[in-house]
Design brief:
The structure holds two protein chains of two kinds.
Chain A: H1 3-18, H2 25-29, E1 39-43, H3 47-57, E2 70-75, H4 91-103, E3 108-111, H5 119-125, H6 128-134, E4 138-139, E5 147-151, E6 159-163, H7 164-168, E7 171-175, E8 177-181, E9 185-187, H8 208-219, E10 223-232, E11 245-254, H9 257-266, H10 276-283, E12 296-300
Parallel strand pairs in A: 1-12, 2-3, 2-7, 3-4, 7-10, 8-10
Antiparallel strand pairs in A: 1-11, 5-6, 8-9, 10-11
Helix pairs in contact in A: 1-3, 1-4, 3-4, 4-6, 8-10, 9-10
Chain B: H1 3-24, H2 39-42, H3 45-54, H4 62-75, H5 78-83, H6 85-94, H7 111-124, H8 135-163, H9 171-184, H10 196-212, H11 216-221, H12 223-231, E1 237-241, H13 250-254, H14 277-281, E2 287-291, H15 304-321, H16 345-351, H17 357-361, E3 367-369, E4 382-384, H18 397-401, H19 412-415, E5 422-425, H20 431-435, H21 441-445, E6 453-461, E7 467-475, H22 485-489, E8 498-501
Antiparallel strand pairs in B: 1-2, 3-4, 5-8, 6-7
Helix pairs in contact in B: 1-6, 3-7, 6-10, 7-12, 7-15, 8-9, 8-10
């Protein structure tokens, strides 16, 4: 069984398990399907399967990707670390999303990251490049020439060079990994946009929360899948010690990047409002951090 | 097939192999390199011999260099004539020289032996200066520091100009070519080197000598040629001239070495490059190359005075090189950050042949050739310049390609314990200290498993009297390995607010910092 057919079967299986109501004669007679939840939180030992079931709970990849789309799947693979250290997005999580996007009819799926460590080592050692390529993605190194200055008109950033592929994509899937971060406490979905920024991007640390919201508002991901298969609880965002890694076997998927990050905070015993960018994102209408008001569907495989 | 055609083919193949290995001296993201990139240097008996004298060690590739020694003893200087990539470059440049007659007196051929004696004498007195003139070191260094960056930066500028040209039809082919070059010929990261111009001028001078006389370098200056010449005095593969010789003198003019003296029937085996040009040229077919042994080798007359002068000046060079304070124990220029695995400075200088392979392979372009940071003796040895590129924490490539062990090959586990320096914060420039502005980039990028940069949250009072919490970084000198990534990414440019110096480097007993 190849990966694609495996994923397809898993989607069907997950659908069958997670929404038994759909199979009741009563439900079948109703024309409108049940509304998709705001967040899907899937937990289980197989990264591919939890990704597939979380996406399925949100209505399936076809809801997000239309045939012929050019899709960017943006992982965090900024560090020269092996997968088990939780510094980069889990390769299987990235590959599963790439596979689903291809399956949904995407014309091209691009995977890249503006890394901090040497790109060659990051792409290779993270395992992401090989996994994404095998799943059908075009993996490329960042080409300096493709950073284009764009107007952000944000709170702090008025104009910044962002990566052309992100600006030109039909659909963007953000797939960050959950980790600690000295300055911003945690790095989750919004922080992952540093990987599409060019220029003197380190300067945004001076007002990191506002800056991240400014960029996130421009990028507008279609879907956000937070990888919490392994989370890094100390010495992030780079890590390097297994004792700092906690295995949660979880992914959190949703269309609201602020809500995803707000949920992500709870994995570390924090609340969304504890993170500046989540609070600011909420206050400025980028998303909703109040988990109590959200429909969160939890799936255990 | 004529022998010269075969020779050109072999020369071309070796030059291409050399350039291929040069291009392969680059990471693909793995921990190790796929090809034996220092292959040519491993075969270099001059590197072997001079390191044996200067550092009293056997270089890792010494068995291969002995192979070349044995080959030369039997076949003569075939390496020079058929293999040496610099020799081939001389051949190619020599085509531009239309002058057929040698410009120097035949006696000039002994210069190279004096150069060799000079170098080996310096080596014996522990200064490793051979790398300046060893043809392979010289070529790899010139390629790395000058020719390759020139090639890439020049072509990139052309492609850029074409892409931005006011006419649009140039953009697509420019992009296609750029992609092609990027994939097969360009370095992953556009290389830039300090000292590029000086190494380039040196190389240009040596290659330019071909305009004066073809293979000038090989005939009169090359110390490796001299060493191989000494070995080939009793070679069994020999040139001989038969009965039909008409004294036309064509072979004398064409000789790539300086092997044919006044009488075209005589051959000086130590000068013969076995290039077969004389064989192919001879209008009457009188020249033969064949295997014959038993003949007595010709004595090499260098002149006693000249020999003594070479030996003495070689020896005297050593204190001359060390007259500057850098070589005094305990005086360490902070900027002299050596690559991880580098030996203690004295030992390091006794090993390093300045081939530049470490600088070629360095992931970040951070390894640069020194100028006088390490004294005159250390000219063109590798130094980490964090503002150009930092030392990648898990990378061990420089030690893998070093031909002499000046940089030890490190196992990944050992790499973590090698400290090449220590980072120091400059509170007058660091944003949280100087202005109360958040930053902490250094802490984020710090690669050690337990971060060597930690922070305290302090409350600072701003201009308006408002109290704000701000995180201030601190370096833990016990954990910091001196990789310089903090300095590299510090948003305070010009003079970064955190800087790495060699203080505390683990290779030195005297440059320690902590108890």
């Amino acid at each position: 069984m190849d990966r694609r057919s495996f994923i397809r079967k898993m989607i069907i299986a997950a659908a069958a398990v997670s929404c038994p109501a759909a199979f009741s004669p009563l439900a079948a007679s109703r024309a409108a399907p049940a509304p998709a939840p705001d967040l899907a939180v899937a937990r289980g030992p197989s990264p591919e399967r939890i990704v597939a079931s979380a996406i399925d709970a949100l209505g399936g990849m076809k809801r997000f990707v239309s045939p012929g789309d050019i899709v960017v799947v943006k992982p965090n693979m900024g560090w020269d670390r092996a997968p088990e250290f939780g510094a980069n997005t889990h390769p299987a999580v990235v590959a599963a999303l790439v596979g689903l996007a291809v399956e949904a009819g995407a014309k091209r799926v691009k995977v890249f990251d503006h890394t901090v460590n040497d790109p060659r080592r990051c792409y290779r050692q993270s395992g992401v490049a090989a996994a994404a390529e095998a799943a059908g993605a075009e993996v490329s190194f960042v080409d300096k020439r493709k950073f284009k200055s764009v107007r952000l008109d944000g709170e702090v950033l008025k104009e910044w060079p962002l990566y052309e592929d992100i600006l030109e994509a039909d659909k963007i899937i953000n797939v960050p990994v959950a980790k600690t971060h000295g300055l911003s406490t945690l790095t989750l979905a919004l922080k992952n946009w540093m990987g599409v920024m060019g220029g003197g991007r380190w300067r945004i640390h001076q007002r990191i929360h506002e800056s991240l919201v400014d960029v996130a508002r421009k990028v507008k991901p279609t879907l956000t899948v937070l990888d919490a298969v392994r989370i890094l609880t100390a010495n992030g965002p780079q890590g390097g010690r297994l004792e700092d890694v906690k295995v949660l076997d979880t992914v959190i998927a949703g269309t609201d990047q602020v809500a995803v990050d707000s949920y992500g905070a709870t994995l570390f015993g924090l609340r969304g409002r504890d993170l500046g960018y989540v609070r600011i994102g909420h206050e400025t209408g980028l998303g909703n951090m109040n988990l109590e008001s959200l429909d969160i569907r939890k799936i255990t495989l | 097939m004529r022998m010269t055609s075969l020779r050109w083919f072999v020369q071309g193949a070796f030059l291409l192999l050399f350039l291929f290995l040069f291009l392969q001296t680059e990471s693909k993201g793995e921990d190790t390199l796929g090809y034996p990139v220092r292959f040519f240097l491993d075969f270099d008996p001059l590197v072997f011999l001079s390191t044996l004298l200067s550092a009293r060690v056997l270089v890792p590739g010494f068995l291969l260099s002995l192979l070349l020694v044995v080959l030369t003893i039997f076949l003569g200087r075939v390496f020079c004539g058929w293999v040496c990539p610099l020799g081939t470059i001389h051949n190619l440049t020599g085509i531009l020289n239309r002058r057929k007659r040698p410009v120097l007196l035949p006696g000039a051929r002994r210069w190279k032996y004096l150069v060799l004696l000079f170098l080996l004498s310096s080596s014996l007195f522990t200064a490793q200066v051979t790398g300046f003139l060893d043809p392979l070191c010289l070529l790899i260094r010139s390629l790395t520091l000058f020719l390759y960056p020139l090639f890439q930066n020049g072509l990139e500028a052309v492609f850029r100009a074409a892409a931005e040209a006011p006419v649009s039809f140039l953009a697509a082919p420019a992009e296609a070519f750029y992609t092609l070059f990027q994939r097969f010929l360009f370095a992953f990261r556009e290389p830039h080197f300090y000292q590029a111009v000086f190494t380039g001028l040196f190389f240009g001078l040596i290659v330019g000598l071909n305009l004066l006389e073809r293979r000038f370098w090989c005939k009169y200056l090359c110390p490796l040629g001299a060493l191989l010449g000494l070995l080939s005095r009793k070679a069994v593969l020999k040139r001989s001239v038969g009965e039909g010789c008409t004294d036309c003198g064509r072979c004398q003019k064409a000789c790539q070495g300086a092997a044919i003296g006044g009488d075209p029937r005589e051959t000086i085996p130590s000068e013969c490059l076995v290039c077969f040009d004389c064989d192919d040229l001879c209008p009457v077919g009188a020249v033969r190359f064949g295997f014959r042994g038993g003949e007595k080798g010709q004595a090499l007359h260098l002149g006693r005075r000249a020999v003594l002068l070479s030996l003495f000046s070689g020896a005297l060079t050593v204190p001359f090189l060390r007259v500057s304070p850098q070589s005094r124990s305990g005086l360490f220029p902070g900027k002299l950050i050596r690559p991880p695995g580098a030996l203690d400075e004295k030992d390091f200088l006794a090993h390093c042949v300045r081939c530049g392979e470490c600088m070629k392979v360095c992931l970040t372009n951070g390894l640069q050739p020194t100028f006088l940071e390490a004294g005159l003796e250390g000219l063109w040895t590798p130094v980490l310049v964090p503002s150009v590129g930092y030392c990648e924490y898990r990378c061990t490539l420089c030690g893998q390609v070093c031909p002499t062990g000046a940089i030890r090959p490190l196992k990944r586990e050992d790499r973590k314990h090698v400290k090449i320096g220590t980072a120091f914060i400059d509170p007058g420039r660091c944003l949280p200290y100087a202005f109360g502005i958040p930053c902490l980039v250094c802490e984020e990028v710090c690669p050690t498993e337990v971060k060597s940069i930690w922070f305290e949250t302090v409350r600072v009072i701003g201009r308006e009297g408002r109290e704000e919490p701000v995180k201030r970084p601190h370096v833990d000198p016990a954990l910091c390995v001196g990789c310089g990534i903090c300095e590299h990414y510090c948003p305070v440019r010009g003079e970064p607010a955190i800087r790495v110096v060699s203080t505390g480097e683990s290779r030195s007993k005297e440059n320690r910092l902590l108890l």
